[in-house]
Amino acid sequence: MIVTTEKLTKRYGDRAVVDGVSLSVRRGEVYGFLGPNGAGKTTTIRMLLGLVRPTAGSARVLGEPPGTPGALRRVGSLIEGPGFYPYLSGRDNLRVHAARRGVAGTHVEAVLEQVDLAGAAHEKFRRYSLGMKQRLGVAAALLGRPELLILDEPTNGLDPAGMADMRDLVRALAARGQTVLLSSHLLGEVEEVCDRVGVISRGRLVAENTVEQLRGDTVLLVRADPIEKAHVLIEGSSVHGDVLHVRQTDAGSLVRTLVRADVDVREVRPLRRTLEEVFFEMTGAA
Ligand SMILES: Nc1ncnc2c1ncn2[C@@H]1O[C@H](COP(=O)(O)OP(=O)(O)OP(=O)(O)O)[C@@H](O)[C@H]1O
């Protein structure tokens, strides 16, 4: 485990902003920390980085308490905008960051390549699009080859093209074996790039699982004629307009049953709940 938390809690006054969160991030995975605005994602991440002290509970990052020099050296993070100088080029900004962090300047070129900014590295930061600025932030987080990369809402404020670029970047990093913890309030994003997801709602971790498992059981959609007869024949089916939903996965035996009873089968396919439906169910955020 790269990150584990045990009943991690942060109270401001009498309000628990993060409430007994126990999560775990495995080496090599992209972990999506998903929740509506204000759910407690940033506060949790700040605790993992040692920027906020927990009221109760504990966390381990790379086997160490958060915020120790040993752990921090091995973690790269992008939370809020990193401080970049508007009149310096992207490359020079990274050189400044590298120098501050004691990372060899030669590494700057490698991270520029990784985030696909090598071609624009000579341009001044202030001329960058928001998406490029964000990618430069990821580049800065990658300096020093961190074992864990923590990105807090990396696509916030980006246009669709910028978001797609950021998703591609995260996927490319994952393909190289980089462990990534990324927070988001966007389901589609998490669904597309993450291996596992922790869902946080009002400070509580309400689910932690793979995207597949979160969606839950497969339901079969069956289009058959006459539909009422099919409904009677298939146990556990429910009628939705002109189709049946059946909570079972053995399509073969289902089709045989219907055909033997002279019911025409027009279509049988898995009907998967979107993560969005699951998410709304769990967080009541609809
Ligand atoms: N220092 C603080 N004092 C009091 N309340 C705070 C403090 N920091 C955060 N909060 C509150 O805690 C709640 C959770 O905030 P947090 O930033 O962790 O949520 P989030 O899930 O990251 O949301 P967002 O996506 O909007 O950043 C919010 O209601 C916020 O107002």
TrEMBL record:
Keyword Protein transport: no
ATP-binding in keyword set: yes
Keywords: ATP-binding, Nucleotide-binding, Transport
SUPFAM superfamilies, A to Z: P-loop containing nucleoside triphosphate hydrolases
Chain ranges of the ABC transporter domain: 3-227
GO molecular function annotation: ATP binding; ATP hydrolysis activity
Ranges in coiled-coil conformation: none
SMART domains reported for this sequence: AAA
Family per similarity comment: Belongs to the ABC transporter superfamily.
The protein's name in its UniProt record: ABC-2 type transport system ATP-binding protein
Organism: Lentzea xinjiangensis
